[in-house]
Automatic annotation (TrEMBL):
Keyword DNA-binding: yes
HTH tetR-type domain: residues covered: 9-69
InterPro entries in UniProt: Homeodomain-like_sf, HTH-type_TetR-like_transc_reg, HTH_TetR, Rv0078-like_C
UniProt cross-references to Pfam families, sorted A to Z: TetR_C_41, TetR_N
Keywords for this protein: DNA-binding
Name of the protein: TetR/AcrR family transcriptional regulator
Chain residues forming the annotated DNA-binding region: 32-51
Gene3D superfamilies assigned to the protein according to its UniProt record, in alphabetical order: Tetracycline Repressor, domain 2
Length: 198
């Protein structure tokens, strides 16, 4: 990588870091681009060059956080004894992350309000494909009923995302989280070839 490319990558990282902090503390609408760029030690020109505008910067921040969430959920799933329990644990972990203030404000409240339908975000698309592959493996193992893997992945991913959105908008997020995780597990268990617990 040449020096210019390294500088650009470094500037992008600084701007995303400063924006992540500002958006979490103040929210997207109240975050000042002048304060944000000053915090990063850069100019507005660097922001526009790297992201186009404030909305483009939010998209980059959301992508980073949402990708981090997926990675953390996968790490939690990897601790489970089998692939089915891993899939359930990943979904439940993603839902529970809606309790985190940064996730709530940036990904679940400001993100959809500014960037539109979360199911169309690149980070959600990669998560969807990973879920589809896991479902295909579980079907091949005979753990799950044979069903269109993409349809099932979209419905499970959508259930987890909508549960997280519900939690973020709730006046009683901890109570809603418990209900959402229980319902998600029950919903997902309908895919099993044998009833859960057998």
């Amino acid at each position: 990588m040449n020096k210019r490319a390294v500088t650009m990558a470094d500037n992008r990282a600084k701007l995303i870091s400063a924006a992540r902090k500002a958006f979490a503390e103040k929210g997207y609408a109240a975050a000042s681009m002048d304060e944000l760029t000053a915090e990063a030690g850069l100019t507005r020109g660097a922001l526009y060059h790297n992201f186009g505008d404030k909305r483009g910067l939010l998209a980059a921040v959301v992508d980073q956080i949402d990708s981090d969430m997926a990675q953390r959920a996968q790490q939690i799933g990897a601790l489970e004894k089998d692939d089915w329990q891993a899939l359930l644990a990943e979904g439940a972990a993603y839902i529970r992350m809606a309790l985190e203030p940064e996730v709530q404000r940036i990904v679940l409240l400001d993100g959809p309000a500014v960037l539109g339908d979360p199911s169309q975000w690149p980070s959600q698309s990669s998560c969807l494909q990973a879920t589809r592959q896991k479902l295909e493996q579980l079907m091949a193992q005979g753990v799950l009923k044979t069903v269109d893997a993409e349809a099932a992945a979209r419905l499970l991913s959508g259930a987890a995302l909508n549960a997280a959105l519900w939690i973020a908008a709730s006046a009683t997020p901890a109570e809603v989280t418990a209900k959402a995780v229980a319902a998600f597990r029950m919903l997902a268990s309908g895919l099993l070839t044998a009833p859960a617990g057998n």
